[in-house]
Amino acid sequence: MFQTTIKDKLIFSGKGLHSGKFVKAVVYPALPDNGITIKRADIPGSEIVKLSPYNVTSTVLATTVNCGSYKISTVEHILSAAYGLGIDNLHIDVFGEELPILDGSASAYVEQFLKVGIKQLKKKRKYLKFTKRIRIEKGDKWIELIPSRFFKVTFNIQFDNKIINEQKKFINLTPESYAKEIAKARTFGFRDEVEMLWKMGLARGGSLENAIVIDKDKILNEDGLRYDDEFVRHKILDLIGDISLLGYRFYGHIRAYKSGHELNNQFAKALLEAKNCYKIVELGEDYNYTPYKTLVLEPQGT
Ligand SMILES: [Zn+2]
User: Fold this and answer.
1) At 6, is the secondary structure helix, strand, or coil?
2) How far is the CA of 261 from the centre of ligand 1 (A)?
3) Of 27, 36, 169, 302, which has the fewest CB atoms closer than 10 Å, so is most exposed?
4) pLDDT band, very low/low/confident/very high, at 284 (cuts 50, 70, 90)
5) Is 253 known to be catalytic?
6) What's the gap in Å between 230 CA and the centre of ligand 1?
7) Under CATH, domain 126-294 is a member of which superfamily?
């Protein structure tokens, strides 16, 4: 019912997916109603920006946000981890043009957030209480929200590839289910696409260390998959990061078919703009969320 932040600052560093350069992010606890703010800390005088779906400037490869006159890429995994664990307020100082890709999942963020601890603040959360179904479509892709007393996601993907094929996953999201079932799922790509991106000077930091790479009907990563349906789980991870930009907690059942960053972002805007479909409320009796205290993590890579 109350807003949260982390107990102490955290540092994440590693290779950037786009540039392949070493980048660093320092994540600080923040005051109630701060939401998630971000800054290009390597550029003197750059401004602090509060993230919203309207900051998103590009959804190619990863989600990029506008930070004053500068851009910051690959924000969706840290945002997903924070939202998934129920962390409302953070400030992120980014040294470089993107956040580190780490292992391509939200695993390290979740692990460190839980290690440092989550602190309850004195101010109550505001929730969007949806009363009507909202749906957007683009070609054969669609995403919709159905009012619900719980935060649930059903995601369906379909690829013309033997390894992925069709995958469907339903999850009732709590901090615990997020950490166990979603956080460790890695991003993925196809070998021929990755090679094409490299030729174009893109995804320079992309490798088997931070993505599942599929070559026709073979997975190139030696250790294989972390979950049988890791692909659809990562799509849910990304969706949670993109939707977190709403800046509110909410309850609803999100159903998505073949959606990605671009449609997720359009959907987040559509949700905010559908003002006759929701009320902004503080936690009521009919809204329940499992406290994060019960969270127990399994070792990485299982
Ligand atoms: Zn992702």
Assistant:
1) strand
2) 9
3) 302
4) low
5) no
6) 12
7) lpxc deacetylase, domain 2 (3.30.1700.10)
